[in-house]
Amino acid sequence: MSLSVVLSSFALLFLAEMGDKTQLMTMTLAHRYRPVPVAVGVCAAFLVLNLLAVAVGEVLFHYVPRAAVLVAAGVLFLFFAWKSWRDAGEPEQEAAERQGGRGVVLSSFALIFVAELGDKTQLALIALVASTGDAWSVFAGATLALWSVSLLGVAVGSTLLSRVPRAVMHRAAAAMFAVFGVLALAEPLASRLEPLVRMIVRPM
Prior knowledge:
Distance between the termini: 62 Å
Radius of gyration: 19 Å
Structural class: mainly alpha
Helix content: over 70%
Strand content: under 5%
Shape: flat
Number of strands: 0
Order of helices and strands: HHHHHHHHHH
Largest sheet: none
Oligomer: single chain
Number of helices: 10
Number of domains: 1
């Protein structure tokens, strides 16, 4: 294992993920739920994603069409948008009772997994493996970077954001998830409509 590859991979992935939608989602989840289950779910998702990128590489993208990934991500984002908006109206005590450990871990894992599958972070990891030939050094550096960014997001979400009124935070999260959902669904829809648009605007 090469320390220089580990450090370069860490630096590249840390900067690429800082402020990304995944970190924003992690902050939101940590504000809504207990931070430890969120951290476990998010870190587990990145671990599995990075293992997939290293082990399967580009082959993954031949068997999982990008359109299918985007549709799954869009539906999941819209579900979380609805759930966040609904939870904004719950009493504080009832909301606290919903913060179960296993459910939060699974929700955090599923959300981050679908959001990051085929994202620029995973593509960058594949490119680093292909260019360095040192898969496990890249895996170690990338995983440490993504865990660091995620844990920073959990820390911010569970501390600084706790001063924001709960209903405001939930509605802001709902809007954010809705935007991500619409954008994710728009790309495969646009690709299907493109031939029809070309037929309509084609000169007679």
